[in-house]
Amino acid sequence: MDSVQDVQVLPESNDFQELLQSLPCERGAIFHPLHFYKGIWYRAHVLEAAMAFQQHFQARVTDIILATAPKSGTTWLKSLVFAITHRSQYTVTDKSHPLLTTNPHGVVPFLEIIYRNNKFPDLTSTPPPRIYATHVPYSMLPESVKTSKCHIIYLCRNPKDIFVSMWHFGNVVPAENFPSLQSINIEESFERFCKGIEMFGPCWEQALEYWKMSVEKPEEILFLKFEDLKADINSQLKRIAEHLGCPFSSEEQNGGVIEDIANLCSFEHLRNLEVNKTGKLFFSQVVENNVFFRKGEVGDWMNILTPSMAEKLDQVVKHKLHGSGLTLN
Ligand code: A3P
């Protein structure tokens, strides 16, 4: 569980290069360039990895797939699901709990990153439950994920807070680590975000797709909101554990296990761990763990967006979600 993995990035194939040339390409809200494939904007190497993951990943019924848009609380969800599913192996107050020494991204890997490093990774020896994360839309998930009846958990967040979180991310990560990060002013970045041109965007399209699937297949897909986790983490932890088929026993509930997990994975606790203050991860570039812990609040957009910006994005999202039963505000 080393936080920095030394990886070799595979050369892109000619077929993929041809596909890439044929796709619309734009400057995104934060990243540049982005390529538009089947309704979603990707960075080139991420699209290539997502396609490999879609073609080759073989899901098992015991797998757990965590799906999110970037900056919607992926790090938090990873820690919660890892803590819930490993609670018989590591009691939450265990001094050797992996989350005390490993960033959540080190215990739950992204499939896009696994398949970026190796198009045919051997994942067969990973013991169940295998927990993976992804930012791809439901339609890009491998057929085996859709048919295996494995558990999917989708976490969404208010797009205004996603934008603000992304904007800050783009400003704190050193450009030499992410050459594709660009310096554009917040107004221009926001305009692009409202058009959905952001990594894995539009985030509201992605949320809507997972929402519809969660209504259709509630036993397979659990749909969560960042704001609900913040409002009442204990009842959301119960929902997650029930969905995963490992509900908290009354003994656990009386013994405070739910509260212990909430505390272990709380923003304050994770942010202040040495590993998350000073450690580093290798995504497509080196990223310091501390960038995943900024404020962890609901409504920070109010400090950044003008009322007219907020109104504009609200209207875009409201229009898109109209009649679906889903709200993201
Ligand atoms: P902010 O930038 O608004 O603070 P992701 O993990 O998908 O990259 O999302 C990052 C966002 O989740 C950041 O939001 C980060 O601070 C917040 N976050 C990370 N860990 C959290 C936790 N344990 N509890 C609440 N929010 C958390």
UniProtKB/TrEMBL annotation:
Q: Which domain of life is it from?
A: Eukaryota
Record-annotated Sulfotransferase domain positions: 62-325
Q: Which InterPro entries match?
A: P-loop_NTPase, Sulfotransferase_dom
Gene3D superfamilies linked to this entry: P-loop containing nucleotide triphosphate hydrolases
Q: Which Pfam families match?
A: Sulfotransfer_1
- EC identifiers of the protein: 2.8.2.-
Q: Which keywords fit this entry according to its UniProt record?
A: Transferase
Q: Which family does it belong to?
A: Belongs to the sulfotransferase 1 family.
Q: What's this protein's name?
A: Sulfotransferase
Q: Which organism is it from?
A: Thalictrum thalictroides (Rue-anemone)
